[in-house]
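Translate sequence into structure tokens.
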Amino acid sequence: MAEAKTKVVINELIQEEVKSKMSKYNEPSKELKMEKLTIQDLPGVGAATAEKLESAGYRDLMAVAVSTIGELVEAAGVSEPVARKMINAARDSMKMGFETGIEVLKKRESVSKISTGCESFNNLMGGGFETSAITECFGEFGSGKTQIGHLLAVNVLKADPTATVVFIDTENTFRPERIKQFALGAEVDAEDILNRIMVARAYNSDHQMLLTEKIDGLITEQKKNVRLVVVDSLTSHFRAEFIGRGTLAERQQKLNRHMHALAKIANSHNLCVYVTNQVMARPDQFFGDPTASIGGHIVAHASTFRIYLRKGKKGTRVAKLIDAPNLADGECCFEVLEGGLKDVI
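Result follows.
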């Protein structure tokens, strides 16, 4: 009987706490108070829960607002109804409901473009590689995927003296010597450029996903102005670890979580995510180009822009834009030189 009474009292205290915190959203000065809310002001969040959330990477309302109920249940150990209230309250405070097209257009004004240094390539991409988006480049070996990643790093650091680039290397392809060559071609200090590139070697798919989660900490805790995240390559470890059709569903689910984590980082911090992808040859393709990217529809749908790179004549490269939300399909031809990319006339 004593234990039952104790449980009733505890439940009543929890309900009173939730009601008191939810009452903040019904007061006349709703908008003013919501702007000052912290994670501890969310319904169902006490000091212990807030500490669990912070240790799991949820340091502000935006992190809670863009998470799923399952993620919060796992991170904080709360029930699904409480997690749902937390997410709804965070989204209300961030005003993440419906908005007009004009409001979306104004938000789009903060989106910037990263130049490739090649006029035809920039025109193909509507001015350059876009922030708040994932751009995927896929193609066979030697098509220029890694070269573009190195060049984008140099160009974004040249344009913004306070910027930082994160390079997640899964195939041992990052070369500081190549960065120095591109820096020389861009007429910037190579040592300064290299000091502002943070490189991490990923040894398996779990390590790769963990490194992605740590990017948010670089921005919020270490106050790094990360403007570009390069993942070279996206599917290398997933392809090696999940072999056969029996593991395909598990691989795709894991890859889907990874892509959503990258998309969350891109949207939350208005940075550009550039990923390279491997390809395979389709044996059932009798006509046309049999090359297909790894990852299937999961990667295709999660990527905002998709570029197919292939080798052209006399050492040139061809970039074909095959998917973009606001650009027409097209292609351009360029050369990869020691100092950067050059248009082919």
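Note: Residues 24-35 have pLDDT under 50 and may be disordered.
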